Amino acid sequence: MIVLGIESSCDESAAAVVAFDRGDTVPRILSNVVHSQTQEHRPYGGVVPEIAARAHIEHLDGLVARAMREARLEYAQIDGIAATAGPGLIGGVLVGLMTGKGIALTHGKPLLAVNHLEGHALSVRLMRRVAFPYLLLLISGGHCQVLIVQGVGRYRLLGGTRDDAVGEAFDKTAKMLELGFPGGPAVEAAARTGRAARFALPRPLTGRKGCDFSFSGLKTAVRHAYEALPNPQPQDLADLAASFQAAVGDVLVDRCAHAMTELRGQAVGPLPFVAAGGVASNTLIRTRLEAACHSHGFEFIAPPPFLCTDNAAMIAWAGVERLAAGLVDDLDASPRARWPLEELKHRA
Ligand code: KG4
Ligand code: ZN
Q1: Is the distance from CB of 204 to CB of 214 less than 8 angstroms?
Q2: Is residue 274 helix, strand or coil?
Q3: pLDDT tens digits for 305-325?
Q4: Residue 28, SS3?
Q5: Are strands 111-115 and 80-86 parallel, antiparallel or unpaired?
Q6: How much distance in Å is there from the Cα of 184 to the middle of ligand 1?
Q7: What is the H or E stretch that residue 244 is in?
Q8: Which residue of 30, 94, 188, 258 could cross-link 17, Cys pair, CB 3.0 to 4.6 Å?
Q9: What global pTM score does this model have?
Q10: C-alpha span between 210 and 276 (Å, rounded)
Q11: pLDDT of residue 137
Q12: Which domains does the chain have, with CATH numbers?
């Protein structure tokens, strides 16, 4: 089974081809090309939806052609076209989904209208045959959730953020401290030379029941700490970035520990624990989560960083999984700005 994937839900335009044969233990990524729109958005210090949509229009056709060329395949050899159909910035989602529909229609191939979050949720299975069910921490620019992945299209939400997503908190912190764009990697780089113990920042919701998250209070505390600095020097910014990152690490560890304890209480698990999404590419966060998993007897698994941040290989792979399950979409599938994982179609 060979699927072409297209991704355009935020500020990465991407195309990839993934193959999975009966005899394979893991799929093969035949090509995986990403154009990050960093240059386009940098002057604004954040993603501008209209600029993103126009950049997707400009780049997607070329990226798709390159992905096909690098995979050394003709469309006749492809079994399906997977395109992100949401959630995300609606202009970009429209561009990618229409591109996918056009190719599917022209070449008479099935369309897979993929939920971007399902792309992240299943991305780990591109590297390893992780069996269902598994516990998932999905940490990206738009989402922060703990779920049980029961199968393709089958998700049980255990908790989520009540305000900002964790990636959003990284991005806003970077903007506030003028560390650069994109924010997550900028905060991580600055934090490397910082002292995490310098600023006492809050750890919202830690110690509470359940596994919901909150990051807006932490973001405000960073702003207050920054504004209290009389003449901020690079070392001050590094210390504040490190203090922020440590607080995020503590919050994620606490909330996930609660999820693991709760599951144990229900005699579920230990399941594999998977971290996915752009923030899961952060080294400190991976290390902290791995240690927490070990102490709870859960195995920690995270895709390599290039599969954590937005890419089309995970969309193509979700397409393979859905095609294998017979979950093909009609050509009138609608793009969706909001599309929770619990609303996905799955096989009965
Ligand atoms: O999954 P993703 O690429 O796009 C969404 O689906 O949102 O995640 C992007 C988010 C951004 O907020 C970005 O700042 C964050 O992931 N991110 C990071 C790192 N790399 C990306 N956050 C912390 N540390 C990183 N190294
Ligand atoms: Zn994403």
Answers
A1: yes
A2: strand
A3: 999 999 999 999 999 999 999
A4: strand
A5: parallel
A6: 6
A7: helix 234-265
A8: 30
A9: 0.97
A10: 20
A11: 98
A12: 2-126+307-343 (3.30.420.40), 134-302 (3.30.420.40)
